[in-house]
Amino acid sequence: MTTAFRPRTLVLFLGDLFFFAFALWLSLTLRTLEMPSQELFLAHLSPFSFLFAGWVVVFFIAGLYESRSIILARRAFSVALLVAQTFNIAVAAIFFFLTPSFGIAPKTLLLIYLFVSFFLVLCWRVFLYPRLGLQKPEAAVVVGDSVEVRELVTALRLAPHAPARIVAVVVPNGEPVLDAVTDAIEAHQARIVIADFNDQRVRAAFSELYNYVFRGVRFFDSSALYEEVFGRVPLSLVDEQWVARHISRQGHMLYDPLKRMMDIVVAFCAGVVSLLLYPFLALATKIQDGGPVFYRQMRTGENNKSFVMSKFRSMSGSDQGGEVLKSKLVVTPVGRVLRKTRLDEIPQLWSVLVGDMSLIGPRPEFPALVEEYAREIPYYNLRHLVKPGLSGWAQLYHDNHPHHGTEVEATREKLSYDLYYLKHRSLVLDATIVLKTIKKLLSRSGV
After folding, report:
1. In the prediction, which pLDDT does 161 show?
2. pLDDT at 78 > cutoff 70
3. In the chain, what are the domains?
4. Which of 17, 39, 132, 302 has the fewest CB atoms within 10 Å around its CB?
């Protein structure tokens, strides 16, 4: 229902490919100071085509195709593009070094291409694409007064690239909703209505607004749009009916075994390769303070079953007899590096291999904290319907991670991201999380 609010990623994708190729032609022109022959251009286009395919993956990882990043403008687009293209050129240099069979070694060309492609793609994204009219903001009327509706209105009003321009907000507490919405649509010639259909007062009025559909007015459920913009489920909507509609094991009968197969293959391969790092990490941890190399913790897994999770030890001190709620452990200098690079979590690959964890899923929590949160936060244990993961949706987008203590409000917000994953989980979403986790590891962010 909210697809109209997503950037036209196919158009962006095709435009990026075109300007990748055009940048190659222009770079060859600047390199030789004359228009390249068809033979010369095709000789370079053939190997560069492989790079183009990889480069759009890098763009995806960088968030350049992501509606949430574009709408909310989390960081400057030009910076993200420059970083992505610099990384792409580095990949290209390695590619041509390892594949001399193509018969070209475009060292100077790659340097020229970095600046030319950055400029062209920047112009395409910033100046040309918006003029296609695909993302022209349309007048929108919002109907509702919940906390999520107000949050959504604020985000859309502040967003520099929002596809909707809020022209009126109808609060259903005075004037009849039907009359207020009709007046707002007519007065502002609105083409979009964003309504909180979970509000009975709002839902009752819309049976009379059906004819506006034939006049080209589009109606959007505010909760669905909220999910798309913020990447989380409004917890005010979660009840037994919501759980029955959106959280189901039967709908994932094919997905679950395929995911398990991927877990085994990736965890085994990565686990074997990671063994090369164990002697160095163990030595650094041991030299630090002479303590144990590994730290084993009880965590809550699928179906609320506890399991032992191992990590390279990154903390020292007293944990008050293992009671996490009274923990006085402190991060060591070596542990700080291990955490920053996520190397302390390498042993968890074996937990994935034996089936206690998955590569992707909600992060496992301490049993003592689970008991506390289950008492304070309704439906908290829904996150334990699936295996916990090395990485997850909340790790990517929840900025206020609770650490080593009871933080109910932060955990409540984190649960909204976990429920989004439970509702939408698929191999495509898992692949998206994997790629974006790689981005976070490379940029050393989100730790």
Report:
1. 67
2. no
3. 3-132 (no CATH), 138-230 (3.40.50.10700), 250-443 (no CATH)
4. 39
